[in-house]
Amino acid sequence: MSDLRSIVDQLSKQANANANRAYLILGARPGPGLDIMIRPVEPLCGKWFIDGRTQAGKNFVAKFWSVQPVSNQSLSEFRKQALDWQLTYQTEIPTESIIDNPGIE
Question: Could you give the number of structural domains in the chain?
């Protein structure tokens, strides 16, 4: 049982070291608050802009997602990568009220 404990401790230390090295490469740690805002190109066409809000978010976008706008498929890949880096993001979707549109009865 002692051997298992030492293996788990060693793997935990290695994981922490890898995370520290990754954030050193990124240049910042996630947070505080929302790291990245995702918003669609208007008029809606299936393309998206990704904007960094925190230093970690800005660095992540600049290093890995500088070519924009991105497609729906690329946005899916971006979301997976953001979760891997523990970055928080929010998708901003524009809405239009039917009541405010005089052309619709």
Answer: 1
Contact by Cβ (8 Å): 89, 37:
yes
Residue pair 65/7 in contact (Cβ under 8 Å)? The answer is: no
d(CA 44, CA 103): 20
DSSP conformation class of 34: -
pLDDT per residue as tens digits for the range 68-86: 999 999 999 999 999 998 9
CA-wise closest residue to 48 among 86, 87, 74, 83: 74
Residues 50, 96: Cα–Cα separation, whole Å: 22
pLDDT at 25 over 70: yes
Q: Using a cut of 0.85, tell me whether the model's pTM lies above it.
A: no
Which pair of tokens denotes residue 60? Answer: 């992540």
Q: Residue 55: give the domain boundaries.
A: 29-91
